[in-house]
Amino acid sequence: MGMAAAFWIMAVVAVAAALGVVLLKNVFRAALALILCFITVAGLYLTLSADFLAAVQVLVYVGAISVLIILAIMMTRDFQRGSPGNRLKLPAFIVAAVLLGMMIFTVTQTSWPLAPQAPLTPTTGPLAMKLFSENGYVLPVEIGAVLLLAAIIGAIVIAREK
Amino acid sequence: MVIGLEHYLILSAVLFSIGLYGALTRRNAVVILMCIEIMLNAANIALVAFSSYIVPLLLTGQVFAIFVMVVAAAEVAVGLAIVLAVYRGLSDIDVNNINLMKW
């Protein structure tokens, strides 16, 4: 019962915040709505008993990415036209609505092979075993580290004053 | 009412569609990047929901969600750097006016 209430609150707030990001005219308010959306997604991870991912979501998205986005908004502050829409509003709405209908139809028509067990909790130790053990995902972890390094260097090179 | 896998998947689909609509219609480059972040988060919700309802003891979906977060962080860093570079050169981040490489 508690989980259901938490899910519905998080779901409604997440959808409202996402609509705010898309529809608000003021870019800064859209960024604040995006942060609210990130926080509710972290709450949704908690209802799915993914505690480590919820913490990572708060650290990476609420902590780092939102700061980057707000910094970019402030650096482009002279651009005062807000967040206008383009001529594609109706076609884009039709595309998004059709895609949403298709996804909902597929999700409700498929019979998912649900597992009977309750999910693992806490997940931090098992996730570390998955990521760093011999027959786990240690190579993708290393490649991810290299990707982040390349992204940092690339961002510095692109954004630096000439 | 018990919350099942379908609830999370439909929520994920709704968030993805909202992000898609925003990414297609907004003209401010920073807002487009924000909409892409919403779409990545929607995909993450679906991955974690699959992980905890279908393979609850394997955690593969959560591992994949972590990699999605890594790629999203790299993407937003490089994307915002490009936006700042374009803004410095053109004094504009309206994607309708950034048409130097368009023919």
**Proportion in helices of chain B:** over 70%
Q: Quickly give the CATH architecture of the largest domain in chain A.
A: Up-down Bundle
CATH topology heading of chain B: Helix Hairpins
Largest interface: A-B, 86 and 75 residues
Cα distance spanning the termini of chain A: 58 Å
Overall geometry of chain B comes to elongated
Parts with pLDDT < 50 across at least 5 consecutive residues of chain A: none
Q: Could you give me the name of the CATH homologous superfamily of the largest domain in chain A?
A: NADH-ubiquinone/plastoquinone oxidoreductase chain 6, subunit NuoJ
Number of domains of chain A: 2
Class from secondary-structure proportions of chain B: mainly alpha
DSSP strand count of chain B: 0
Number of helices of chain B: 3
Average pLDDT of chain B, to the nearest integer? 91
Written account of the structure:
The complex is a heterodimer of chains A (162) and B (103). Chain A is globular. By secondary structure, chain A is an all-alpha fold. The longest helix of chain A is centred in the middle third of the chain and has 25 residues, at 51-75. In chain A, helix 1 (2-23) runs antiparallel to helix 2 (27-47) and helix 2 (27-47) packs antiparallel against helix 3 (51-75). Helices cover 74% and strands 0% of the residues of chain A. Chain A folds into two domains: 1-82, Four Helix Bundle (Hemerythrin (Met), subunit A), CATH 1.20.120.1200; 120-162. With 103 residues, chain B is mainly α. Chain B has one domain: Helix Hairpins, CATH 1.10.287.3510. Helix content of chain B is 75%, strand content 0%. Chain B has three helices and no strands. In chain B, helix 1 (5-25) packs antiparallel against helix 2 and helix 2 runs antiparallel to helix 3 (60-90). The mean pLDDT of chain B is 91. The chains are: A mainly alpha (162), B mainly alpha (103). At the A-B interface, helix 1, helix 2, helix 3, helix 4 and helix 5 of A face helix 1, helix 2 and helix 3 of B.
